[in-house]
Specification:
213 residues; alpha/beta; Rossmann fold; 6-stranded mixed beta sheet; two-stranded antiparallel sheet; globular
Length: 213
């Protein structure tokens, strides 16, 4: 779900400008899932650009203040969600925690790092949502610790049907600043891709698991 069209367009423009997004339909990337993908997304690069980093911080904070009202705790998904989560928590004046993918094998064996109390209302920050697996695992960890997860806010999402269904199955939602559809529109407008590339890139999102196999 996209919260604001103007924000989505600006984020798309920024990601393309700094090459945080690479689109190459003729030479696809191979994901860990073995899917062929015409897109590579590296939102970590936004941290190196203060103006873009600040815009992302302000936009995520805007969503939390206006949509996830009542949140009194911010969480980040390790590792990519941590820096943006910290920035959002600072913007909103809220405490911050982060969720590991697995429990530590030493010390106190924490999976959630930071101070929190049962019953707090938390918004989870992600940099990227594909199938939603890592976010959903983090949501379940937070819920197991008796925290009220209001939802997820991410920088970018592909908008896969699988991710929508996966979040629906756990009665949660996610909101992204930008999505694949808005990215393609901006890429075409800025001539980052050609008119011939556009339908190929649109086709991928329909069935990414079997594309070009």
């Amino acid at each position: 779900m996209i919260y604001d069209v103007d924000i989505a367009k600006q984020i798309a423009k920024s990601l393309l400008q700094i090459n945080a997004i690479i689109l190459q339909p003729e030479k696809p990337f191979v994901w860990a899932s073995k899917w062929n993908s015409p897109i590579y997304c590296d939102n970590r690069k936004t941290l190196s650009y203060p103006e873009i980093r600040n815009y992302i911080r302000q936009s995520l904070s805007y969503i939390i203040k206006n949509h996830y009202k009542g949140a009194n705790l911010i969480a980040g998904v390790a590792t990519a969600g941590i820096p943006h989560g910290v920035l959002v928590a600072e913007e909103l004046g809220l405490p911050f925690i982060y969720v590991r993918s697995k429990q530590k094998k030493h010390g106190k064996q924490n999976q959630i790092e930071g101070e929190y109390k049962e019953g707090q209302s938390v918004v989870l920050i992600e940099d990227l949502i594909s199938t939603g697996k890592s976010s959903i695992e983090a949501i379940n960890t937070l819920r197991d610790s008796k925290l009220n997860v209001k939802g997820v806010a991410s920088i970018f999402s592909y908008g896969f049907t699988d991710s929508l269904n996966n979040f629906k199955n756990i009665s949660s939602e996610y909101i992204s600043l930008c999505s694949y559809d808005y990215l393609l529109e901006e890429a075409l407008k800025s001539q980052y891709i050609s008119k011939d590339d556009f339908p190929i890139l649109k086709e991928w999102i329909k069935n990414p698991s079997t594309w070009k196999k």
